[in-house]
Amino acid sequence: MASFPFLLDVHCSKNDDFKYPLYSTVFSVVFVVGLITNAVAIYIFACSLKLRNETTTYMMNLVASDLLFVFTLPLRVFYFINRSWPFGSVLCKVSVSLFYTNMYGSILFLTCISVDRFLAIVHPFRSRTLRTKRNAKLVCAAVWALVLSGSLPTGFLLDTTSRQRQRANATFCFENFSSSQWKSHLSKVVIFIETVGFVIPLLLNVGCSVRVLQTLRRPHKVSRGGGKLNKTKILRMIAVHLTTFCFCFIPYNVNLVFYSLVRTKTLKGCFAESVVRTIYPVALCIAVSNCCFDPIVYYFTSETIQNSIKRKSLAGRPCDAKLSEALHSESSSNLHCSLRNLKAKMLHESSV
């Protein structure tokens, strides 16, 4: 029977040191861009946006998830540059938990936006009682509970730091879980988060988008606006939404399955381990970049946000608008006074 080298269960050398400069560079860029774009988004939501609905409720929670993760990125950059974690076990576990909270929180909140758009376009009348701000808040609370139930055990119930044999003073974080940890706990976590946090949301996003596209093929079914412009906006929203979802989350989550199989020794061989370890850092960097792409989804998803930004661009002339309004009010007042004086004069002359 022929033997294949990638099926042999031998000790494999690790050649993934390229991940450290890659992580430190990408995470630094994501920190700067993600902090700025999400800070602008939360400013618009909190201070500028007057009209709020269930869609903006989902997006505000998505911003909160992104910012929580962005604030931990400087710690990760420091670690990947120095290859040692000096901040203690608690902060390491918090950082691990917030990574999974952000990723799968983003996936679920984007799914909520997709389902909400599906209900608004495909079932605009029957969904009126469902699409309320109160129900949106309840859904967001359920999403947070679900995400935290998966991310907190991953971060806090595991010994996420360990000593490296060659360097006694170096402490690991975010990596080098033992095989026993993968077999006893992490493999079960992967099954849970992949099913609930990725596969089901992916099917919902694709299914809802397909139904919306089918509805758009029948223009009389589109209840809002009407006409070609409205259809173009919806198509653009779907394209941006699905592109962001697939680009950021599919590579990491597909590779995570194979990475789990390799670490639990279900998938054996140096070739398989080498391929998975090479793809994993690249896929992780793409997944982390979702913090930068989410604000783009906000803009194309919410027409009220677009209008708010347009009002901001015209904010350089507030005094002119107020002056025009005042002049209009004053001219109307003078006209009413003139009419009253003319009427009184006519009555006086007739009585004389």
Largest sheet: none
Tell me the Rg in angstroms: 28 Å
The DSSP helix count reads 11
> What CATH first level of the largest domain would be assigned?
Mainly Alpha
Mean pLDDT: 77
**Under CATH, the topology of the largest domain is which?**
Rhopdopsin 7-helix transmembrane proteins
Distance between the termini: 128 Å
Q: Give the H and E element order.
A: HHHHHHHHHHH
Q: Write the CATH architecture name of the largest domain.
A: Up-down Bundle
Low-pLDDT ranges:
1-10, 223-229, 316-336, 345-352
Strand content: under 5%
Question: Your description of this structure?
Answer:
With 352 residues, this protein is an all-alpha fold. Helix content is 75%, strand content 0%. Helix 4 packs antiparallel against helix 5 and helix 7 (228-263) runs antiparallel to helix 8 (270-288). The radius of gyration is 28 Å and the shape is globular. The N and C termini lie far apart (128 Å). The model is unreliable at 1-10, 223-229, 316-336 and 345-352 (pLDDT under 50). This is Lysophosphatidic acid receptor 6a. Belongs to the G-protein coupled receptor 1 family. GO terms for molecular function: lysophosphatidic acid receptor activity.
